[in-house]
Amino acid sequence: MPTQAKRETIDSLVELLKKSDAVFITEYRGLTVKKISVCRKNIRQAGGEMKVCKNTLMRIALSECGMIQAPDFDFGPNGYVLSYGDAAAVAKAIRDFSKEKGNEALVVKGAILGGKLLTKEQVIALADLPSREQLLAQVVGTIAGPLRGLVTVLSGPARGLVTCLGQIKDKKDAA
Length: 175
Hints:
Blueprint: H1 4-19, E1 22-27, H2 33-45, E2 48-52, H3 55-65, E3 78-83, H4 87-99, E4 107-113, E5 116-118, H5 120-128, H6 132-174
Antiparallel strand pairs: 1-3, 1-4, 2-3, 4-5
Helix pairs in contact: 1-3, 2-4, 4-5
């Protein structure tokens, strides 16, 4: 039976997990406090939050939320990054930070996204996706393309008529 302090920690983790749409599991062993602070800031700017807690407490919180367990990642000092919006942006922030020189100690172990476990390679692939805004812009562009073409085709005869009438007017003015 967990102590009262551990129970409060579990309850706060459960609340955070209920708000999140993805949980990234990272190992931060070897990072200085300054570097981990920079990492947390980058994650916060991307719409996430990094929590460091005991693996057992996170396992209990995950089970209470009904989320899938991550047994392969349940060892070592783990940092749990919770995404509250665009999971791809948070994955990109983690990947970009770990690629910087001197930050190789931050290792992505995997993630829980949409009730499924993701491997390290899948998290990197998620980070390579365009942002949500870019994807929406591409969809809107794809939908607007045929409509733009239709408007151009439909406005052609009217434009031709106006041009023809303009030329007739110019000829009458010249005569």
